[in-house]
Write a structure and sequence with these properties.
The protein is an alpha+beta fold. The protein has three helices and six strands. The protein has a single domain (3-86), classed as RRM (RNA recognition motif) domain (Alpha-Beta Plaits), CATH 3.30.70. The protein is 29% helix and 35% strand. A four-stranded antiparallel sheet has the order 1-2-6-3. A two-stranded antiparallel sheet has the order 4-5. Helix 1 packs across helix 3. The mean pLDDT is 92. It holds the Pfam family Ribosomal_L23. This is Large ribosomal subunit protein uL23. Keywords: Ribonucleoprotein, Ribosomal protein, RNA-binding, rRNA-binding.
């Protein structure tokens, strides 16, 4: 996997109350990933980008919600979420920077 594909696969960390609980309780990190990304691509991208060891990856597709904007119905985009389980003793810090 080339460096460009790594940055396409991992879009952003998903920060929410649930993801914070998962990080503390199960040593998992949640990412927003590309819709066409596979579990193996996500695993290798996280391992190469953050220099950590990944135990497993669980993915789910988040459906786009139907909302109204100025009285007109519209739809938010669908996206993919990945729960990345890190190996025991491994930690991921977003503030320290990527090498």
């Amino acid at each position: 996997m080339n460096q460009e594909r790594i940055y396409e696969v991992l879009r952003a960390p998903h920060v929410s109350e649930k993801s914070s609980v998962q990080a503390d309780a199960h040593n998992q990190v949640v990412f927003q990933v590309a819709v066409d990304a596979t579990k193996t691509e996500i695993k290798t991208a996280v391992e190469r980008l953050f220099k950590v060891q990944v135990e497993g990856v669980t993915t789910l597709n988040v459906k786009g919600k139907t909302k109204r904007f100025r009285g007109q119905p519209g739809k938010r985009a669908a996206w993919k979420k990945a729960y990345v389980s890190l190996a025991a003793g491994q930690e991921l810090d977003f503030l320290s920077g990527v090498e």
